[in-house]
Amino acid sequence: MPRILAVADEPTPGLPDLLDARPDVILSCGDLPWDDLERMVDLVNAPLLFVPGNHDPALTAKAAPLWPTSIAIRDLEDPPGPRGCTNVDGRIEDAGGLRIAGLGGSIRYRPGPHQYTQAQMARRARKLARAARRKRRRDGRAVDVVISHSPPKGLGDEDDAAHEGFEALHTLVARLRPALLLHGHIHPYGFPKPDRHLGDTQVINVVPFMVIDLET
To answer: What pTM was estimated for this model as a whole?
Structure first.
């Protein structure tokens, strides 16, 4: 039974104690400082997969420093994102005994990275679903968990423009039928956010953190 530590949006002061839960995989749903994610990787022997939130910086590769600086070697590029972590935005990875698909970002409400219109997110979701089908044809494994920054529209989102959910997540879940969809972006502010369901998929707001034992 794989154990998931899911985190999002709000730094966790008691992180070292939380990591004593011995998760098999850490899943970040966005908007956490990269230093915090790197510290999690340093503190626990488990892979960390993440998707970016709307407040995260752009994930653009930076060339490694070379001498002389006029020499450019493509293979010597620092991977974008927090050190030791795997970006699964628009991708599928196997980790901790689970197959995990990711779709980061929020609804577009101002200029900035990791923001999308409903139509743009729909295109990204279709591409991710096709990738999942190709993987399943090869090895017979389905996606167990989808991690997103934003919730599905109408399932735990808010009325203001910045916190509208994505319609495309409904279609993605219908195609992939994961056990879980984990998201952030919606802060509880002291009030519990109930779990919801899309068919057989449990939709969980993990802000600020959640420990989940998933029966596969």
So the answer is: 0.90
